[in-house]
Task: inverse folding
């Protein structure tokens, strides 16, 4: 048996994930080589600052600031820089040289995925990206390979650990949003600037990637509807629990058919009410989970750590071993299956249901007026709960609280209903609007 030469690996970035990838590659090189069929030689680590503090003590001779030269001498390039540039330029350079690329860069894939996949296909290289969504959870390969022969109807995912930690703390300990965010920051779950997480940008990038794979259609990031959790209140969370729901921010990818019979897809991110009995309702702390509904396979659940240096490094190394095996066996890379070219529908085309909380005047005919607004927009009421009336602090008119659950309807009709309720004379305030998913 002919022994294959060492596969040369270049690492771009030595942050929390990159440093763990380097450590594990150096510590378990022999074991990884037995799985790959060839030795994995870490030829260098490109960084911006040679003197920066690292999470792991690594040989100094591996570090360089010359990423381009490092790429040219590698068979496989592992990109863990993050962001768009210089990551995009370096990945394109690596692919152009014929090297395979392993990346965990969700922002890059969500924004420039088609360009990168086309560049890989042109030279017969392969782009691996298991670590880009849900950290250590193997979800990309199951969607890409194991379920390639099935028809995926829907994906619901908790794909951001920071926001799940915050909402879970609000639900289980009664913390306010601000207090929960402060705790998340102190424990290292939230960045100093948490905008990407709490405003849903991170989850939207992952939704674009998941939808593109699941529906074999390029789903651009700009087509993903996004709402964050900054407006979620402790009152909403308590009311949800009382009604048998848990508030979770979900990445939803769904196959739809519009009123003209045209099939398309939807990708969206927003906080939603999940029934207590649904598997996603029991995902606590900073964990991630992805719930897949497939025509033949049925319901599938993928659960685990969605972030963390060593956890995400596991996914990177899995891709690295796969890439090395391909070098040993030979043959061109497998192109992405994004040939369906289904249209991406706007949020208004989605069918869902709402839970709407209103403050209304405590007067005869209020329920009839509110029901009339819903009926006018083609939205039917499933449940109504009314609390006892209270008198205003200044002795003003008494108000009551209505919590209305709707049947499923088009998002555009539901949104128009809420807008009309805000203008209805008997409605003092629309205090909460949350969608219901997974019921």
Result:
């Amino acid at each position: 048996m002919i022994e294959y030469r060492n596969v040369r690996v270049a690492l771009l970035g030595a942050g929390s994930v990159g440093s763990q990838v380097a450590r594990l590659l150096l510590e378990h090189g022999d074991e990884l080589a037995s799985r790959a069929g060839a030795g994995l030689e870490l030829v260098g680590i490109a960084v911006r600052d040679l003197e920066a503090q690292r999470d792991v003590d690594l040989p100094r001779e591996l570090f360089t600031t010359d990423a381009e030269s490092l790429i040219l001498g590698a068979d496989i390039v592992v990109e863990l820089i993050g962001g768009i540039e210089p990551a995009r330029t370096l990945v394109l350079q690596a692919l152009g040289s014929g090297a395979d690329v392993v990346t965990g860069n969700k922002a890059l894939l969500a924004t420039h995925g088609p360009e990168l996949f086309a560049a890989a296909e042109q030279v017969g290289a392969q782009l691996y990206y298991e670590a880009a969504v849900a950290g250590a959870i193997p979800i990309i390969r199951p969607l890409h390979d194991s379920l390639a022969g099935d028809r995926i109807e829907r994906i619901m995912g908790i794909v951001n650990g920071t926001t799940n930690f915050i909402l879970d703390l609000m639900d289980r300990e009664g913390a306010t949003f601000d207090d929960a965010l402060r705790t998340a920051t102190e424990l290292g779950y939230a960045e100093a600037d948490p905008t990407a997480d709490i405003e849903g940008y991170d989850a939207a990038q992952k939704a674009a990637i998941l939808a593109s794979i699941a529906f074999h259609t390029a789903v651009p990031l700009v087509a993903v509807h996004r709402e964050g959790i900054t407006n979620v209140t402790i009152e909403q969370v308590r009311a949800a629990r009382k009604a048998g729901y848990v508030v979770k921010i979900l990445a939803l990818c769904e196959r739809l058919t519009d009123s003209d019979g045209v099939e398309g897809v939807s990708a969206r991110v927003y906080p939603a009410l999940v029934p207590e009995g649904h598997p996603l309702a029991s995902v606590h702390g900073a964990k991630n989970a992805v719930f897949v509904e497939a025509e033949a396979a049925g319901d599938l659940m993928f659960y685990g750590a969605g972030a963390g240096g060593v956890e995400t490094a596991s996914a990177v190394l899995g891709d690295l071993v796969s890439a090395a095996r391909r070098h040993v066996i030979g043959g061109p890379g497998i192109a992405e299956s994004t040939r369906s070219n289904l249209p991406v529908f706007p949020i208004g085309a989605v069918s869902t249901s709402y839970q709407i909380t209103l403050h209304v005047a405590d007067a005869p005919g209020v329920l009839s007026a509110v029901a009339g607004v819903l009926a006018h927009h083609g939205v039917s009421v499933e449940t109504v709960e009314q609390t006892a009336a209270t008198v205003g602090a200044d002795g003003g008119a008494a108000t009551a609280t209505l919590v209305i659950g709707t049947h499923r309807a088009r998002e555009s009709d539901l949104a128009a209903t809420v807008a009309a309720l805000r203008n209805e004379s008997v409605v003092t305030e629309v205090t909460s609007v949350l969608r219901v998913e997974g019921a």
